[in-house]
Every structure is written in structure tokens, then in C-alpha cells.
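User: I'm curious whether this sequence folds into something compact or stays loose and floppy. Could you predict its structure so I can see for myself?
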Amino acid sequence: QVQLVESGGGLVQPGGSLRLSCAASGTIFSINAMGWYRQAPGNQRELVAVIRSGGRTDYTDAVKGRFTISSDNAKNTVYLQMNKLKPKDTAVYYCSADVTVWDRRDDYWGQGTQVTVSS
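Assistant: Here's the prediction. I'll summarize afterward.
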């Protein structure tokens, strides 16, 4: 089994910064991609950013230029640096990992961490 543990959420004023972390543990043969999703009240969960095993990154348009996703492969950890935060960034942020264990490939999710942007 694979576990994802997130940290780094909290309350921040508009224009501020936060850094989210997500560490994957358990039986992992390879991580194909890790990403961050978010879900605001009344909205569907949406992809924020993803980083693939080759290092390619993708971002939703709303965060381009403000958020940066990175990873430490030795630690099976992904980070999301969030700068110039806006109230509309307020949501529960979820980490996701596309993991291969033996010959099986599955998606795993963290428990979520709340990010609130408010003055």
C-alpha cells in the first residue's frame, strides 16, 4: 500500500506565500507522476499542477506564473510553492501520485490540506 502525507497548508493574507509538501511512502516501484489538485466549496476538484517522472510540468492557467511544482525523487516528495496567493486560491489541496507497484499502476490520494487566503 502507498500512503501520501501532505503538510504546509494554513491561513495566509492575499499576496502571501505558502509551500505545500507531500511525501509518498510504502511499497513503491516507480512514481510516474505526482500532482496537486484543489477543491473549493461547491466546486469540482481541479488539477492545479503536475510533475512527471521525466521532469515535465503542467499547470492550470489560473496559477501559471504564481505556483511552482517540484520534486525530490530521492525522498518521493513533491512540493507546491504558491506565491502571490489570491482569495480564489482558497480550497482544500490534495496530493496525488501515479504509482507502479509490481505490475500494477494506480492513483493514490492524500488526505488534503486546507489553504485559506483571507485578510
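Summary: Residues 36 and 95 are 5 Å apart (CA to CA). The mean pLDDT is 96.
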